[in-house]
Amino acid sequence: MIFIDAPVFISAFTISDNCGKCRNLLESGGFVTNTLVIAESANGIGRIASKDEALQFLRWIFRVGSVNILDVDKNLVFSAMRSLKKSHLSFLDCIHYSTAETYECDAICTYDKDFDKLPIKRIEP
Fold first, then answer.
1. Of 8, 13, 19, 76, which residue is 20 to 30 A from 46 by alpha carbon distance?
2. How far apart are CA 7 and CA 63, in angstroms?
3. For residues 45 and 30, is the Cβ–Cβ distance under 8 A?
4. Interacting residues of 85 by C-beta distance below 8 A, sequence separation 6+
5. For residue 65, what pLDDT is reported?
6. What are phi and psi of 121, to 5 degrees?
């Protein structure tokens, strides 16, 4: 299983060089994300494209049956706080890393190179 970060969703739902690759990855399903990524993605899509495109993304993400969405709760925040002490990641990225750890993901799919050199490998679509 892989964790999908916001840049992948944003690229899939806006006009970008990576749109096709990102859409193909998302259509394959079977991935993990969290509610913070969903909020970051909707906000980014709305800024780049439109509110209608952001709403289309939100409708899509909640209709997909093969996506695991972890709520950002206090347990995940405490896990992220532990990661924050040991890593170079931002707090938001620590939440994403902790989500990937929780689901025992094989990889984190993102264009964000801050995830390089972690125990969970970073991949791109």
1. 76
2. 20
3. no
4. none
5. 82
6. -70, 150
DSSP 114: G
- Strand pairing partners for 33? 69
| Residue appearing with tokens 């859409």 | 23
- Cα 86 to Cα 36: distance, rounded to the nearest angstrom: 21
Is 78 exposed, middle or buried, given 0-12, 13-18 or 19+ CB atoms closer than 10 A? exposed
Edge-to-edge strand ranges of the sheet holding 107-109: 67-70, 31-34, 2-4, 107-109, 121-123
Tokens of 80: 């992220």
Query: One digit per residue, pLDDT tens: the chain, 125 residues?
Result: 999 999 999 999 999 999 999 999 999 889 999 999 999 999 999 999 999 999 999 999 999 888 999 999 999 999 999 999 999 999 999 999 999 999 999 999 999 999 998 999 999 99
Could you give the domains of the chain? 2-123 (3.40.50.1010)
Q: In terms of DSSP bridges, do strands 67-70 and 31-34 run parallel, antiparallel, or are they unpaired? A: parallel
